[in-house]
Amino acid sequence: MPKNEKKDLFLTASIAIIGLTAIYFSNTFLNSLAMSFLLIGIIVLTTLPVQIRKKKQRRLITDYLNRIDTTLQKNIYEATQVTPNQLKNYTVLGTGIASSKLYKIEEIISKM
């Protein structure tokens, strides 16, 4: 598991724990409408680290596709079995590549 993936999982878990603690302690002070807004806010916040990372990965892949480096292409393909065409489709659509492969691609590109 790449370092960035561990970091994102830790941040997501931390936000969820803090949010659940806040819900537990504020349960007696807030009415049900306020609690539902608080719960929705916590759910949105738990997805925030991963969404920020995906945006960064998309930008890295776009920068990578703008330069022609055959050794980097070979390294990415050997590590993840993802072709440059799949990467082009990912930058357009934002889907089609597993997140574990995206973390590996990010690690490979950042090392070069």
Unreliable stretches: none
Structural class: mainly alpha
In this structure, how is the largest beta sheet organized? none
Q: How much helical structure, as a percent, in the residues?
A: over 70%
**What is the H/E order?**
HHHHH
Strand portion: under 5%
Specify Rg, calculated over alpha carbons: 19 Å
- The chain-level mean pLDDT equals 84
From the spread of the alpha carbons, the general shape counts as: elongated
Oligomer: single chain
Quickly count the helices: 5
Report the count of strand segments: 0
What separation lies between the terminal Cα atoms?
19 Å
Polypeptide structure, described:
This protein has 112 residues and is an all-alpha fold. It has helices at 3-26, 32-66, 70-80, 84-93, 99-111. The two termini are 19 Å apart. The mean pLDDT is 84.
Question: Could you write a compact summary of the structure shown?
Answer:
The chain has five helices and no strands.
Provide tags for this entry.
elongated, mainly alpha, 5 helices, 112 residues, 83% helix, single chain
What layout of secondary structure does this protein have?
Blueprint: H1 3-26, H2 32-66, H3 70-80, H4 84-93, H5 99-111
